[in-house]
Structure formats: C-alpha cells, structure tokens
Amino acid sequence: MSIVKANGIELAWDHFGHEAIPAILLIAGLGTQMIRWAVPFCEDLAARGYRVIRYDNRDTGCSTHFSDSATPDFDALASALMAGRRPDVPYTLDDMAADAIGLLDALGIAQVHVVGRSMGGMIAQVLASEHADRVLSLTSIMSSTGNPALPQAAPDVMAMMMRPAPDPAIDPEGFLAVRLAFVRRIAGTAYPFDEGAHRALLLEEVERSYDPGGTGRQIAAMAVAGDRRARLATITAPTLVIHGVDDPLIPPACGHDTALSIPNAIYRPIAGMGHDLPPELDQTVIAAICEVAQKGSHHPRA
Fold first, then answer.
1. Model pLDDT for residues 177-200, shown as the tens digit of each residue
2. Nearest 5°: phi and psi at 202?
3. Which one, of 240, 205, 214, lies nearest residue 121 by Cα?
4. Which fold would CATH assign to domain 2-151+212-298?
C-alpha cells in the first residue's frame, strides 16, 4: 500500500500489474475500503492485461478522514431536502470524484477504465460525465441514478444499515454480529454465504481503520447528489451496467434506470446476485468489464 497527496488530501492505494499497460480504477462503496476489491479479483483482472488500481475513498481506510466535521444530522438533512433546500455537507460526490482525478494525476495516468460498485458506481458516473476526457470506459455495478421515482431499499434492510454497531474495540463479537447480519441480508440467493470470509474481511477493515462517522458523511454526500440522469445522458464512454436481480439494498430497477440514462449502455442483470460480489461471479464480472474496456480502448477520449 502507498499514500499519495491528491486533491488536497491523502489517498491510500495499491495496484496489480505493470505500470506501462492500460489502467482500470476500482472504486469502493459506502463505508467500505479498497480491500473489498479482493486480491484474487484484482489479480485475475490484471492477468487480462491491465494495471488494476484500487484505493480508499476519503473517510475510509488509510485515506484522510474528515473527523473534524460532525456526522450530519440525518433528520435535519432529510427535512432540508424535502423542503427543496440543499443542506451543507462536509463534501459531495463531485469532491470524491475529484479525489480520483487527483490520484490519476499523481500517478501520471491520463486516461483510465473506471469501475465502481454501489456508491463507487455513483462516483464513477460523475467521473464519466464530468471528466469525459479521462474515462475510457465505465462499469457501474449495483448502483443508481438518484431518480426519486425509483424503488427504495427494503425497510428492514435500511433499518439494518442504519443501526449503530457496538464499538469493535469494546465488543468485537457484538460488532461482528450486527455487521454480519446486514451482509447476510443483502447477499444474493444463488451462492453460499461464506461467513468466515466475511468475518475476516470485517476484522481486516477494523484493523485498518474504524470510523462510523465517515460512513455518515458519505451518506450525506449521496443524499445531496440528487437526480443525476441529466448528467448521465452526457456520458460518451462505452458503458456497462451490472446489477444483481436479488439486490434488496439498491433494487434492480435502479440498475436498469442507470442503463437507460446512459446512451448506448449495456445492461447485465445477474440472477442470484444481491448487493455483493461473491467470488463465484468473479470471472463473469471480469469478462464483462474487459469486454467494455476493449471497446473503450478502441475509442479513446479526446
């Protein structure tokens, strides 16, 4: 793992593959760290002929945390949005997209294939719409457009996501019980749930950094992003949208809406997949990413 200064903050990153070959940038989701892009997935993707870069978003992992900014009051945030007011938040998805651009600048990478999951898909969409000259292709996984007419997460899923977990330094088993219950609930139905692997991943994330306030600030950034369909309509990069048919957190209609909003986007619903990327689907997802990346490589941005 390395640290670079980018967009006025520090970003933790690492990579797989040779520096002189085309790059794929992997963007993680809400409150999760770059290690959610598992090493075998990254290695297999790199073996297809790409330099694979993953990084910790701001407020997660070993990147800069905005701990001096208070966690937003979600009731006040919702009230302001319902009243048509834009509340003040510590940062926005545009700021997070600018972090990615800053990372590319620091690494001397002019253009990149972008892959984002969940919130990371939203950041990837902003990159492709606002920084078109830097994005060769876009893969948006289990993400959405901000269209207010779309279905919301199942009520019990939303309650589980917002439920505070015990501090892992004080009650590690209580923390794991809360987080594992949520991860199990949003997983798909077609593949076995590997509790041991999820447990190890959660503990690894805690060891790297534990900051629930950061997750709250990222939620606020998503909340004020609004309806992005007009921005998505400007995307010119070849685009792939992947979504789990069983996703209870961001329902599949959200993925379909993403594909409909981006000109010529390819929509790939995956049966049995939830709001997760089980290793059994690695080769399916990697092949799809490489297919759209090849299209982007043949049509570099101006």
1. 999 999 999 999 999 999 999 999
2. -60, -40
3. 240
4. Rossmann fold (3.40.50)
